[in-house]
Specification:
The protein is mainly α. 68% of the residues lie in helices and 3% in strands. It has a two-stranded antiparallel ribbon with strand order 1-2. This is Probable queuosine precursor transporter.
Length: 229
Amino acid sequence: MKENSKTVSVLFMLFGILFCVCLITANVLETKQISVGSISLTGGLIVFPISYIINDCVCEVWGYAKARLLIWLGFAMNFLFVLFGAICDIIPGAPYWTNQEGFHQIFGLAPRIAAASFLAFLCGSFVNAYVMSRMKLQSQGKNFSLRAIVSTILGEGVDSIIFFPLALYGVVPNEALPALMLWQVILKTLYEVLVLPLTIYIVKKVKQYEQEDAYDEAIDYRVWKIFKL
């Protein structure tokens, strides 16, 4: 078993890149409303749950401290993407530019929605990582499937409870908000359950390759200890 250090492996770096790409992609896809049968959802549902799957994998293999670094890295990259998009949206377009309205719909993210999204992401992701870490210690590394599902339900639940009221209160009818929040959690959790066999396979292979299987004993769970690996 490798000793924990302040270095990160190539595989961890690749997980980090994929994590950030998923978050940024979800941010763009959130601008489209989609329908699954009679249920209205946002396009971000296609890719956002992958970030929770990556969070589970990183926490399982490298531990909570590395997951904490990944979460803050994802937050920073997403913030930069939104910031640069907002700046570009404000700059006047060229005289021949005819797509300003469409560009604004994607990159002119309202400050209220952006703030709600960032806060919900941080809280939900850290709840997910904390639950994975604590349940692993309590189960002595057993029942990965149960830990992944429970942590996702709680993480996605916190994410939805924070995001939808802050971002959509007064926009979506109040009586519709609870159902919208519930369906988001249900479908995102179902997403994780469906890909769970693949997640288990990836975690197993990564553990074998990295010779790593972290147990967060005596870990500092404070979220701002970003570089305490």
